[in-house]
Write a structure and sequence with these properties.
The protein has 21 helices and 8 strands. The protein has helices at about 15-25, 40-60, 90-115, 125-130, 145-150, 185-210, 215-235, 260-270, 300-305, 320-335, 335-350, 360-380, 390-395, 405, 410-445, 450-470, 480-500, 505-515, 515-530, 535-555, 565-600; strands spanning about 5-15, 30, 135-145, 155-160, 165-170, 240, 250-255, 275-280. β4 (about 155-160) and β5 form a beta hairpin. The longest helix has about 40 residues, at about 565-600.
């Protein structure tokens, strides 16, 4: 659920501003209201942070040296390996800039070498010396055709398939541009390139050694982040002007969870602050804090990765998200063998991290692998193997309506199983999307607007039967209540048209619907497409099963002879690739059904801003 918030304002004496902010940070419950502020101190801190992050970016591409004594002499002494000296960032940036400059020089000289190498090793200064003696030599690179059309008298120095290198004595060749003399000879260019490469090699030795102190730089970055947060809060505090200095006060506003308001009140009483708390206004950008039980909280690693959070005035669907995502995961992976593998990985990692606390992501993996295993058992799918090769007890524990063992008996049986799977996908759509509108009905039960949600629910139920009639069966008489579904669609549309935009006045609600008549009418088609969208669960699962079967077919002949190792490699690679593709499919399709189709029927825009209290962490000092 979404934790209720209070908007609070704190008034402190201006002379105690910094000390009050430190105390406020120790309380660690206030989310500061976002403000655009400026100060010289903030500018300097942001500049330091940018430089520290740039230095970290340079060092992250280098693995830290692990062997003692690998650091080049002069990089750092043995006593400061765990320290972050003031010049560490500047040293890394200096090396980074030097490396970039040297790389540019290397590229330019390599290009110049390529241009002059065909002329051989000569001293370009000799041309000037000859000119002082009255002998003017002008170099040219001519095409074969251009050279043949010129009169004799040119000194030919070399020739290849397309170009002739010549010297003209005393005068320029009309219509031709002289070849640009280099600044240095080929040998000097080679020496310069070698010197640049030596310098780059030296830098490449120093940076891995400095990478030993990445942790120190990361700690410095965390310290700077806290200092920036502190300075932002300090600069954002408004001050009463035109009063004596001893009576000048400042104030700051933010949001605190209602359950933690007592903590802030105690801090205010202990430090002599004036505090005012009230409910947020509609226009306030209120942060969202979620609070759910341990099971529902397993979805947080995924939503954090996706950076999706409901707005403060929206609804928390974490529980429903987790439930249906588990089902989607099992259907998309669709293989009990994969489920066993994922479960073993989860168990091994959980056992290794048990003392420190099993990460929430591993707990979620165990839950998802169980869903995958369950679906694979029901459909009798084990590593894409032919069901004829599976033990009989695996066939017996499968569900005949959707079992691959039943589908393998005949084409007619396969058609029936496929039809059942499609019906299940559409039924899953009806169930999940109905939950969305039921949530809307409950939220608006005290307003006629709930009738609009009821109408949408009717359209959904009616369209479900239409989908079954059009997609699953060509004989509409096999679909129950089809005539009734048409009434549900029509009646539901009417209710939605009248009450969907209700805000205290039915006339205005109808007028608003007329203003958006095209989207409102297209809403019927959207319901159809949303239900149809769930067929992707069956289609993607079928694609994964086909890949598994193909891999087994290719590797099978290799397992019975001396090429068995090649067959094993093919099996591992093929099924490994399929696992990766399944993960991508879950992220694309399983997440989409929750964050798009389901969320649109709930009326959820994922517009939330995470609750981040003003708090001092252990990662760095505050000032």
């Amino acid at each position: 659920m979404i934790v209720p918030m209070k908007k609070v304002s704190l008034v402190v004496m201006e002379k105690d501003r910094d000390a009050s902010l430190e105390k406020l940070r120790e309380a660690g419950v206030l989310h500061l209201e976002k403000r655009n502020v400026r100060s010289d101190g903030l500018t300097k801190l942001l500049d330091r942070k940018a430089k520290a992050e740039t230095a970290l970016g340079i060092l992250r591409s280098y693995p830290a040296e692990k062997k003692a004594g690998t650091a080049p002499q002069g990089v750092f002494s043995s006593g400061d390996r765990d320290e972050a000296p003031p010049d560490l960032v500047s040293r890394v940036l200096e090396l980074g800039d030097e490396k970039k400059a040297l790389q540019e020089q290397l590229l330019a000289n390599a290009k110049e070498r390529s241009r002059i190498e065909k002329w051989g090793n000569f001293d370009p200064r000799a041309f000037a010396e000859f000119a002082q003696k009255g002998i003017v030599l002008i170099p040219y690179e001519l095409s074969l055709k251009g050279y043949e059309s010129l009169p004799e008298g040119l000194i030919v120095l070399g020739q290849d398939k397309t170009t002739v290198r010549v010297l003209s004595v005393g005068k320029e060749i009309p219509g031709e541009s002289p070849w640009a003399l280099p600044e240095r000879s080929l040998a000097e260019t080679d020496a310069l390139i070698a010197d640049i490469r030596d310098k780059l090699a030296d830098i490449e030795k120093q940076l891995p050694a400095l990478a030993l102190r990445k942790a120190s730089l990361e700690g410095e970055r965390e310290t700077l982040l806290q200092q920036i947060e502190f300075e932002t809060a300090r600069a954002g505090m408004e001050t009463v002007e035109n009063v004596p200095a001893e009576f000048t006060v400042s104030w700051i506003t933010g949001f605190v969870p209602q359950e933690d308001l007592g903590v802030l009140k105690r801090a205010a009483a202990e430090n002599g602050w004036a505090l005012m708390a009230d409910d947020p206004e509609e226009w306030d950008q209120v942060p969202t804090k979620l609070k759910n039980n341990r099971l529902v909280s397993l979805i947080y690693p995924l939503t954090d990765f996706l950076e999706t959070l409901p707005g403060y005035n929206e609804v928390d669907i974490s529980g429903w998200f987790l439930l249906f995502f588990c089902i989607f995961f099992g259907m998309i992976f669709g293989d009990a063998g994969y489920g066993v593998l994922l479960m073993l990985i989860g168990i091994i990692v959980a056992a290794k991290t048990a003392k420190k606390g099993v990460p929430a992501g591993i707990k979620m993996l165990l839950l998802l692998s169980f869903s995958n295993l369950a679906w694979g058992v029901l459909t009798c799918t084990w590593f894409g193997m032919d069901t004829a090769l599976l033990p009989d007890f695996l066939k017996r524990i499968s569900l005949p309506l959707i079992s691959g063992a039943v589908a393998a008996q005949s084409p007619e049986a396969k058609a029936i199983v496929d039809q059942n799977l499609m019906i299940f996908c559409f039924s899953l759509a009806l169930a999940q999307l109905s939950v969305g509108h039921i949530i809307g009905i409950i939220r608006n039960i005290k307003s006629p607007k709930f009738l609009g949600e009821l109408g949408s629910l009717g359209m959904l139920a009616g369209m479900f039967n239409v989908v079954l009639a059009l997609v699953v069966s060509n004989d509409y008489r096999r679909i129950p209540f089809l005539p009734l579904s048409l009434y549900l669609i029509g009646g539901g549309f009417l209710l939605s048209f009248v009450f969907a935009n209700y805000a205290g006045n039915i006339g205005r609600s109808i007028l608003e619907s007329f203003k958006n008549i095209i989207p409102v009418v297209l809403g019927i088609a959207n319901v159809f497409s949303d239900i149809m969208s769930y067929i992707r669960l069956w289609a993607v699962g079928l694609a994964g099963a086909s890949i598994s079967s193909t891999v087994n077919t290719l590797a099978g002949p290799l397992l019975g002879n001396f090429l068995i190792f090649l067959g094993i490699i093919l099996l591992v690679f093929g099924h490994g690739l399929n696992l990766i593709l399944n993960v991508l499919s879950v992220l694309v399709h399983g997440v989409r059904l929750n964050t798009l189709e389901f969320s649109s029927h709930v009326g959820l825009a994922w517009s939330g801003m995470a609750y981040k209290p003003f708090v001092k962490t252990d990662k760095g000092s505050s000032r």
